[in-house]
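Below is one such protein, fold included:
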Amino acid sequence: MSIELRVRRLHPNAQMPVRATEAATGFDLYACLSEPVILTQTPQKIPCGLAIEFPYGYDVQVRPRSGLSSKGVGVAFGTVDADYRGELLVTMYTFGSLETYELQDGDRIAQMVVAPLAHAVTVEVAELSDTVRGTGGHGSTGR
């Protein structure tokens, strides 16, 4: 089943999100820049020049591209809410030994994944069921 992902160009040079291959999970997102941006370890919001609309009941996530991550360019995982109509922005930064990275207009910077949203409600309880793991947190199941 497919849904309609409505995309509005906010800038004439904005590129539409596309899947790199037919089997790709995510749509590539592109930088929409009037001039190059130098990324540093301080997070910066990079515009895509697009706004999107999708049906309630779906989850749209902005995720890193593995090719950029392997170079030391990070993307903060993000969620786009179904009622948001503003410009898509991707929070980017450098990490590890990479001090700076230059972004150009039209560079592929992230991927956007669309999935059905689980309808969940919160229920306050006095106790939770016991498990083998219990309250073991970060790193408790591995070395």
User: Anything to note?
Assistant: The longest strand covers residues 108-116. The chain has one domain: 6-116. The chain has a mean pLDDT of 95.
